[in-house]
Amino acid sequence: MTAKLTVVRAGALTTIQDAGRTGHAHLGVLRSGALDAPAMRLANRLLGNPGEAAVLETTLTGCALRPDRTVTVVVGGAPCPVTVDGEPMAWGAPVRVPAGAVLDAGRATAGLRSYVAVAGGITVEPVLGSRSTDLLSGLGPAPLCDGDVLPVGSPDPVPALPPAAPWPGPPTVLTLPVRLGPRSDWFTAEALRTFTAAAYRVSAHSNRIGLRTEGPSLERELTGELASEGMVLGAVQVPPDGRPVVFLHDHPTTGGYPVIGVVPEPALAGAAQAAPGTLLRFTLS
Hints:
Number of strands: 20
Strand order of the largest sheet: 12-19-16-17-14-13-20
Structural class: mainly beta
Oligomer: single chain
């Protein structure tokens, strides 16, 4: 019989995430999935799970869980205190949680999003092939609430694994490579220079949909209306206030503001861990 996890403390925002939904963009359904995919995969691999097994993605304040059977978990991503019934445990390494005990992944001490992986994975019912929560469309399971009960899959036999692994630290300065276009010609030459030379900061209004910025405004060369166009992961859209927004995994399928450039997907894991106020620079790739 497999375990179940009761959510004792849901935290500010905790969602179920895996590798996301692929192959449905033509239907207006985008990927969603873990914002810090490398952290999700590493936490899973330390447990012998497939790298894409569903995990919990917390936001800043962590979460607390009580299993009805003994389980093994890894808390990774943003560093945070980890306790079991109040006793300090390892962060970033497998921890055994007895039946009825409370695992608490606390407030992030750096970065923004921690990942709680469980041996066997979280096995809520998939929607369009994924268990991920999509905050914009509402697809997938709802964000967690206190008292929710989550099913856990049967763990695979665990191969010989290291007791811990090196985890990249959250960025103190976030540098995002960007490829200009498709609408970079809508901006003045000075705006293009500013975009790749100025210092921005991550806005507190950022979320899973997009990383918003604070800093100099980018002036447009063309001021007319732009017909809505398809949006891709990593698109850097410039709304009327002139401050770039980097689209993350729950971004809209279309948008009507010009896209000055696109950040390649591998660079977006750093954006997932960039706390409000983090210095941000865009560089041409």
